[in-house]
Amino acid sequence: MPLIELKEVTKVYRMGDIDVHALRGVDLVIEKGEFVSITGASGSGKSTMLHVLGCLDSPSGGEYILEGIRVSGLGNRRLADIRNEKIGFVFQGFNLLPRTSALENVELPLLYDRAGRIKDPERKAVEALTRVGLADRLHHEPNRLSGGEQQRVAIARALINEPAILLADEPTGNLDTVTSMDIIGIFKELNSQGITIILVTHEPDIARQGKRMIELRDGRITHDHTVSASGG
Amino acid sequence: MKWKSLVKVALRSIMRNRLRSFLTMLGIIIGVGSVIALLSVGKGTQSDISGRIQSLGTNLLIIVPASSGFGGVSWGAGSWNTLTMSDVDRLERDATLISHASPVVRVRGQVIAGRNNWYTQVQGVSPDYVDIRSWPVDLGAFFTEREMKSMSKVAVLGATVADTLFPGIDPIGARIRIRNVPFTVIGVLSRKGQNMMGDDQDDIILTPATTALVRLSDGKTVNSIMASAVSEQMVEPARTELGLLMRESHRLKENESNDFGIRTQTEINETATSITRMMTLLLSSIAGVSLLVGGIGIMNIMLVSVTERTREIGLRLAIGAREADVMVQFLVEASIISLMGGVLGILFGFAAGAVIGKLTSTSIVADPLIIVVSFLFSGVIGIFFGFYPAKKAAALNPIEALHYE
Ligand SMILES: Nc1ncnc2c1ncn2[C@@H]1O[C@H](COP(=O)(O)OP(=O)(O)OP(=O)(O)O)[C@@H](O)[C@H]1O
Ligand SMILES: [Mg+2]
Fold first, then answer.
1. pTM (2 d.p.)
2. Is residue B57 in some structural domain?
């Protein structure tokens, strides 16, 4: 059973009288443990696809199957639960709560851990921050952290609920080249520990760090190939 | 979702905007505060007032000149002061439905006792006054009919006057000067406390009405006549009888209207309750308007808060908050603001009540039920007025909220 399966997925936004076709029939299979980079021109549908994969948005047509569950067609409540249990998000803008310590920011998803899967939130949060190299910044608030550090806190937050997939939309978009590579290094490290990663980026250098590259154009997949070990 | 974290999140947001949160609470504080002040003072006052009306006397009837404005009676031209000692004599002789009657001659003046002096009210009355007002002496004796007839210069002091002029000294037998006229103190009245208007009833000196008329007043003006009906049932019939006797005594022709008015204890009672009722109504409307304004304030601030935290809401939705979680979060915040306002209002209300109580020497009643109800009610206001903003927050589209600028 693949981790993710998209079958003929379409997404249409209605803007008044016009239909905007953000996705025009995407077929995709992603297995557990992959590191997929999604590239493409602006407006090609990368973010839209990531939102669908992350259950933040439902497709207009087609099917989305996540870990054997047919997600397309589920109600808002179930989608919220799936986001909490199976998905970790990392955004371009970090989206940390201001005036809230790194530790508390990381613990946030556990507030919605209705099943009570995660037992010891604080220990778990320290562990997640340690994994991203911030063991010494536990009580710092976002305004006292650098951009790279803030993004690491965001990654730790995405990790705390032990998600099946980590989704990142331009996670290095606000960072300089060196810091970007640090962040990608963390993703690679996490991937080597078995976490599936799907990363949207428009920077070819970053995209090449993944194991598999997918290119979108005008809502369709135009390229899908594994990255050679030599790195190209 | 865990309640502890919910409360923590809400408190953090409230503390982040301390001044704003406090201003938001103000309406609730004033609203709850006035309810509490009203109820705590009102409850005390009610029992005070009924006690004081009782202290006025039993089955009381008061005859006043029409000009004093009681009861809206018009008066005969050129005779605005119409009560005299002969009216009193007439009533005492012919009235069958009253057990006692006493003139009241009222003057104010300086009283000197040795080195002490005091400005107080002097009332000239008859010995019946003691029974009419159920106001016995504590020390010494009240004056008698004989002293009344002989216009003796004797005085019975109210407790306050006795305390002031004779601190720690037995005043019986002492000489005092009222408006420079020498009097002998023969008694001290028992303590009666304040009347409905909050005046100290013990700040008074009683002398025989005849003495007061001739020595202290103009020799003829009786300010009012107090009488006791023989029983409670006879108060109204007695009013009719006194009315007829007074008309005869004043030789009023059939087409002439009364040049006097008669009030009964029931009327005084009604006036007092209608005053309390008006106060209650006034304070309740202040409370109601404040609570409404307070509620709208909470709604307004919560809408601002939802807009300010759109990205946070988007994030929460993305990491697995259900719409209901977001809604509950904002409802909790609104209720906490409102409950804090409620608690401050309760404290403020009791403080205000205590001050009012001090000023008017009424007792304050702290009813735990009132506290609990006010507290719960302010919570309900928070939930009611927080509902729309919370609903709005929960209905946000997560993707749009996440990218809100
Ligand atoms: N909420 C929306 N309403 C209407 N149209 C939308 C909406 N979201 C996206 N679109 C449209 O769908 C298309 C795909 O958008 P999407 O955000 O997926 O592009 P993208 O590949 O992420 O671009 P970028 O690299 O600029 O982020 C675009 O044409 C965009 O205008
Ligand atoms: Mg995008």
1. 0.72
2. no
